[in-house]
Design a protein that fits this description.
Length: 260
Amino acid sequence: MLSGKVALVTGSTSGIGLAVARALARNGASVMLNGSRPAAEAEGLRAAMAAEFGVKVAYTSADLADAASVRALAAAAEKQLGVVDILVNNAGIQHVAAVDEFPEEKWDQLIAINLSSVFHATKAVLPGMKARNWGRIVNIASAHGLVASPFKAPYTASKHAVVGFSKAVALEVAETGITCNAVCPGYVRTPLVEKQVAAQAKVHNLPEDQVIRDVILAAQPNKRFLEADDLAEFVLFLCSPAGAGMTGAALPMDGAWTAR
């Protein structure tokens, strides 16, 4: 489906990003991985994915809180693999605290990674997409791009902004072959979330299945984690020819969280 295409996926050495990168590679795209794994571990992951799917796979670490590093990441993808056809802005961080207690340096870091990196990466790849009159930009936002939760004001602000940014970009490129969408998942089963479940079970002295239902997924009506592979398949659809008509959308995959 994506043979000959080049994809850049930020934060793609674990969790959602890795699932997305694997789905794109499985469908023929060359993939630039990005993350902060130790060099040997990253090289093992890169080599294994290239061998499994028979495509070119590269890896570049980047400080996504730094604009120059984001631009360098996009340049490395183009140099090693070719002009970027697919950009998936997935990398993000979270910090939970009341606004009046929120560390200012955490605010700056969160906004830089969750929001500003999306702008810098998009700006870097758009000229090539415009030249080829084809491109797919998928920004992994969150259900918090559509609704809010207490003690997550900076995260909520960043994800609302990603949704708005996605819509604006879609309007700018509406008459080209480029699409831009924001995907808004609820809670996704990742190693990080699994650790949160174990920690919350210990704090509340509850079994993990009850913690999942009554604590972690309290706001999510279906009471089930979204699997990273399922989210990846949705991203794959948006990047496919069948997704050409879908642009400028904020697309929930949140177990009816935002249906209320």
